[in-house]
Amino acid sequence: MNIKSTGMMALVLAAAFLCLGMASNASAAQRLVVEKNHSARISLSGAAGSVIVANPDIADVNVIDSRTVYIVGKGFGNSSVIITDQMGRPLFDGEVVVTASQKGAITVYKGLTPSLMVCSTICTSEEGGSSNAGATSPVAFGTIAAATGVTP
Predict the structure, then answer these.
(1) pLDDT per residue over 15-25, tens digit each?
(2) DSSP states of 32-58 as a string?
């Protein structure tokens, strides 16, 4: 073997190992944390062919174009999301964890039952109902003001 063919062989082997490394990174499981009713943008390395969401009550995927998707948090919990190209090769393989929003969020206890409230000028429960508990309860009033900087 001469020096020229040895150099070419080393280049081919390096390229092969680089391709193997890229393939393993593309299929490596990822973890994505998204707040409920929020989304996260994912840029794909290739054109999406199929989208699989294990639990559509937890997360949803909106395809913007062939290489851009948004994962939307719909309900609390975990769901697997897999996006493949036309040949079935994984472009995204991850666990989506949907959590509560922490911006302006407080926990209000009624007896021993906790209720998550999101507050701005009024408080709304995670279930969607509004509450004016802060106006009548000094403890809730102080908690809301401390958590949000807003006096209800």
Answers:
(1) 555 444 444 44
(2) EEEEBT-EEEEE-SS---EEEES-TTT
